[in-house]
Amino acid sequence: MFEAITAVVFGLGKALCVLALVxxxxxxxxGKRWRxxxxxxxxxxxxxGNLPQLLxxxxxxxxxxxxxxxxxxxxxxxxxxxxxVVAEPDLLRQVGTRVLNHALFRSLMRGxxxxxxxxxLLIARDDYWRLVRSAWQPAFSAASLSGxxxxxxxxxxxxxxxxETRAREAEAEAAKGGSGKAATAAxxxxxxxxxxxxxxxxxxxxxxxxxxxxMDCDDIAxxxxxxxxxxAAATAVAAAAAEGGSGRPDDKFGRVLVEACRNVFRYSxxxxxxxxxxxxxxxxxxxxxxxxxxxxxxxxxxAQLLRARGDLRNACVCLIQGWxxxxxxxxxxxxxxxxxxxxxxxxxxxxxxxxxxxxxxxxLPASSAxxxxxxxxxxxxxxxxxxxxxxxxxxxxxxxxxSFGKGAAAEGAExxxxxxAAPRVAVGSFLGxxxxxxxxxxxxxxxxxxxxxxxxxxILAGYETTANGLxxxxxxxxxxxKVERRLLAEIDEVLGPDRPPTEADLPRLxxxxxxxxxxxxxxxxxxxxxxxEDKGPVQVGGYTVPANTAIxxxxxxxHHNPDVWPRAEEFIPERFLPTSPLYPEVCSRVPNAHxxxxxxxxxCIGWKxxxxxxxxxxxxxxxxxxxxxxxxxxxxxxxxxxxxAPKDGLWVRPVARHPLPASPAAASAAxx
Length: 672
Prior knowledge:
Blueprint: H1 2-28, H2 30-35, H3 51-57, H4 59-70, E1 73-78, E2 81-86, H5 89-98, H6 111-119, H7 126-136, H8 142-175, H9 181-185, E3 189-190, H10 191-207, H11 230-242, H12 249-267, H13 275-282, H14 287-296, H15 300-325, H16 376-389, H17 408-415, H18 430-435, H19 448-478, H20 481-495, H21 510-522, E4 528-531, E5 538-540, E6 543-545, E7 550-554, H22 555-559, H23 607-624, E8 625-629, E9 638-640, E10 644-646, E11 651-656, H24 664-671
Parallel strand pairs: 2-7
Antiparallel strand pairs: 1-2, 3-11, 4-7, 5-6, 8-11, 9-10
Helix pairs in contact: 3-4, 6-19, 8-10, 8-23, 10-19, 11-12, 12-15, 13-14, 15-16, 15-19, 19-21, 19-23, 20-23
Cofactor: heme
Organism: Pleodorina starrii
Keywords: Heme, Iron, Membrane, Metal-binding, Monooxygenase, Oxidoreductase, Transmembrane, Transmembrane helix
């Protein structure tokens, strides 16, 4: 007996020793360290790598420190994922233009959620990327941008009117001598959130021809001021509606979509995201197991992310099915920026929840329902069931979940009201281009899953980066009075006190564009991008980078390089004015020194769209208002995730620049 126990203990001891040795070898990453030994970089801890510095400082600051110490090319360990970082403008341009594929970092998502990420334009590779990019390109032609302008202006006008109303209310409260909490809160606005609602509204009206009513969602007197997730937002809207608020079905759709976009970015980051992501960085070999555990036992951040991804997926399906089942209309007849989403009042029977086509079966044709041999009424029934019957529970398995909850028809049957329906989108919008794309060799159309991936990409990209860039611009203007005065002078000269900008006005607002460009230099929302060459080694600045090694392009480091940018930490929009003596210092001397949208053919395809939208928004906002920062926000705290963003929002007080016109009665009384 004693011998048996001794043998078992001895065996366990040997197993533990072997396990400890394996873990030690894994943690040291001897093979990866040896392959990259010729490239300098900061010391990396076993397992953790450089994660402590990355989480404490954020990658932009940490990369800048490494640039100073190790030069323009250095290695960094994201846990046990080793990468090369490039932080010099010339080298960034060379790598960005020569290496086309992005590095593929597997998240904890699985099923359709993972496929939606892989099939989107951002991660697409090789011939598939070329096909998808060619489908996107017409959406950003000069003619398309010209057509989008009226909708961009309408969204900017709506936001400005909202903020000016808040400013007038604050003035009225101050005039009454108000004090206490109500007076303190009067006029106080998180401009970052407001700008996010506006950019999402722009995406809806320009890309899909529908009004998401994203800005209207916050109008319900305090009911949805701050919520933790999309379900709470929907509940708040419903409660407000019961008390006479707006609470229309389309309002709920917009509110859920806004919250979903915000939460996707927030909870996808290492800082705010799930602890399971950090474990997968330490043990990438166990990522499938970690992913399975995360889905079975999600922590709060992962649960929030799953809900947000499910709601976003549902929105994509609603848009696609709405386009496919709508009657064909002539171009230009679709709803404009001021037209709400039309609710469809169809009923349907319960059926199993279908999945998006993944290419293993013939995709649905990119045409109207009649082309499928179905009558319009039955097509609408099928679309309503399809769009609302499955709701992405985070597993990508099509089981009901998420804030859209039960199908629209089921809700309508229970309440006796019409269902919450998919928004109708217009023929000839972004969806029309994607659905009509064909592979040149085979003539095959994109599958439903591939189409949904493009819809998701446009929604997320159009929402986040432009909103962040505009928020940073507002912060920089508020902290630089001289810049603000010159900006206001240009806008007043070109537009006057109230006329919205037109296409002819945009070239006459060079300083407005320079302000946005300089804000993107100091605070680039896309603070880094990446590349990966899997066909062979790559030469980068005198170093040979082995094949299949991720290369990070640190845009933030290049934008703050004092060897390139004189007074690099100062906000000087004149750098971007060709008529300024400061322009030759950098912009005409160092190609691609300013690259907030990336490099080469993989740079942001919608960058002209973003600049036009930002220029219109800044012009209209500062035509009517200026913004005073709430105390305690200088210097601005930022959060680093997929994008660079204000950490706790950007709180301002809008101040009206022009007095309200006097009423006829008041004018008559003053005259007498």
